[in-house]
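Before we proceed, please read the two lines closing this message. Tell me what the token row says about the fold.
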Amino acid sequence: MPALSFDDIAYAMEHTVVVHEPDRLIDTFGTTNFQFHLLTEPMDSVGVVRVREGRMEAERPKILRPEGYDDLLFEGFGEQAKTFAEWFRQHGNIAFFQYGFHFAKRGFTEELVHSPIEEVRDRIAGEIRSSGDPSRALICGVDDSWEVSLIKFTMETIARSLRINAFDFKRRGLL
């Protein structure tokens, strides 16, 4: 797969939608697991949806100093994540991303479904709601830069978790 440009990353960030967020947040002092369903439409097919499923682990947050941006690790993500990390170094909001996480993809599967994306999205969203599993997420993203779509999900999860994680760190005297 060819390397992504900054424009490709910006496009994926803008066009990725987290349809269903997990109910749980990232644990401040432990590892957190999330299950994801990532839906994309291949550019060369009509009425086809690529469904990627897997598990992500967010290790316990650590306080990240400005010199620590080299610690951004995306295990198993490949070249797209390296380009994204460079893009983030140049465009990231330092006040937003105060500590780093190590993310890893696990239990990954991929299949093509011959149905409209709305139908697949609604079916999976219903399954997630009825399962009651607080760790499941549903994301609609961009096929050629799907890993960036997954990284956007992780960034949004960090944003949702940041306040409680900062509170926990302050309560223990670590900030």
User: Anything to note?
Assistant: Helices lie at 6-15, 79-91, 117-131, 146-171.
